[in-house]
Amino acid sequence: MQAMSDKRRYISGCKRLPYAVDALRLQAEVAALPSAVWGNTRAPVHQETVSLFLRGQAPLQGVAEDVDQPLLDQCPYIKQLLHEVLPGRCGKCLLASLRPGGLVYPHTDAANDYFLESFRVHVPVFTNSQVHFFSGRRLFQMAAGEAWSVNNLAPHAVLNLHPRAPRVHLIFDIFPDAAAMELLARLPEAPGLENEALFRQVASRRPAAVQKP
User: Fold this and answer.
1) Interval 71-114: pLDDT, tens
2) Which of helix, strand or coil describes residue 28?
3) Structural domains in the chain, sorted by start
4) What CA–CA distance (Å, rounded) separates 209 from 172?
5) How far is CA 200 from its chain centroid?
6) What is the C-alpha separation between 123 and 80, in angstroms, rounded?
């Protein structure tokens, strides 16, 4: 892997990328995937989600090489987005569905070469106004049709307060080319919102799988 600057020099929380996603086309493509292919082999902080890897595998699997999974061939628009949203070499790519009322528990991803040098991209597929993404102490709301780069080495969490609708995001990692790095350096940080009460509610929770007896 070619050495690259620590991405934390380019993004501290969240930056919205200047790319317009065809939300309806993306939603139709994801909705057409069979329900049986969704599962959860990720870390305990993601235990209230189900996911589907389209490229690479979950880090828990210990597989270093990120290759296309067969289901990616059924997702031509997602393939297109992997090359266009933020130009560069794609690492892992997955769809993650957070259940109604669910929480992705506060955590930081491992500060290894992979996560230091790649930029994580979130594209909301199905979402609603009751979904709250936290980076640090600030809250961000991401709409379908938007693309965001997220510093996953900062503490982050997601809360879906909707009682019936899951939140589904397309998530992938890009090792950006030089032009993309220049773009990322120019983009402003999204300001986010303050909601101290909601932040405290989320920050105090830990997944049962890692709680001490």
Assistant:
1) 999 999 999 999 999 999 999 999 999 999 999 999 999 999 99
2) helix
3) 7-58+68-205 (2.60.120.330)
4) 26
5) 22
6) 13
Distance CA 159, CA 139 (A): 10
pTM assigned to the model? 0.94
Q: Is the dihedral of CA 80, 171, 94, 111 positive or negative?
A: positive
| 63 vs 151: CA distance, rounded Å | 23
Query: Do 154 and 199 meet the contact criterion of CB atoms below 8 Å apart?
Result: no
DSSP assignment of 182-208 = HHHHHSPPP--EE-HHHHHHHHT---G
Reading the block at residue 112, the tokens are: 């290894």
Inter-helix orientation angle 76-84/23-31, to 10°: 130
